Each structure stands twice: as structure tokens, then as C-alpha cells.
Amino acid sequence: MKEIILAISGKPGLFQLVSRGRATLVVETVDEQKRRTSVSLRDRISSLNDISIYTDDEDVKLMQVFENIREKYEGKPVAIDAHKASKEELSDFLAEVLPNYDRTRVYPNDIKKMILWYNILVDNGYADFLVPEEGSEESEGEPAE
Fold first, then answer.
1. In terms of pLDDT, which residue wins out, 122 or 1?
2. Distance CA 97, CA 90 (A)
3. Is 80 within a domain?
4. pLDDT digit string, tens, across residues 50-59
5. 117/66 same-domain check
């Protein structure tokens, strides 16, 4: 995902960064309406690329979790109604795509957001959640020096 997708505290949904101003960002909703708005740099703004999920080992990037969900659901939206799902259903869902997630630090509301955000992205044509790292396209079989 080459675009910068943002979550803004207090605003529902996801936003794509359009441009930067001196003390503001111009963002566009990631939906069919494509509404543009400006947000202050004082707002709590998080890039989805910077969000990680707690696990029993090392934290896992949210984009990796989205990729796991995409593989499990074959690129289709998740059928779980995040607003009505029980804590157990949410926990079971995340355990299927990230078995070693930290059950004490990942809350049901976090899982709900994850499902809602994933569905927004998939419904609006986003399918590549992982960006290949630079240098990973080196040809295989060449000896390392």
C-alpha cells in the first residue's frame, strides 16, 4: 500500500493523505464519497503503517495482520458485524489470523477497529497491504559476499 492511510482520533473511518500545509494536513475519506477536509497537526493522527499489534513475542505491524486477514478471507470483507460481535467472537477472529496476540493488551474495541478498517480498505479496492522492502528483489541464488 503506497498511499498514506491515516486514522484520526475523533473522526470515524480512514483517510488518505492528499497534501501537507504549514500546520494542517489535507485528507480525503477512504470511501466512495471521497470527501476532503483539513486536520490540524495537533489532532491525534496515526498512519496505519506505524500501528502495531501486541503479541506474546514481538509486536506485529497492523499491515501484516491485514495481510493475514486478506489471505484467510481470500481478499473479501470480513463477515463479522464488528458492532454486534461478542468479546469471544472478536477474540476467536483475531486468534485465527494472529494466534499469539496478547490477550491482556489487545482489547475488544481494538479488534472491532481492525475489522472495520480492514473492511473499509477492501471495499474501496485496497488489496496490497505489505510493501516489499527495498533490496528484497535481489536475485536468488547469487552468493553473498
1. 122
2. 11
3. yes
4. 999 999 999 9
5. yes
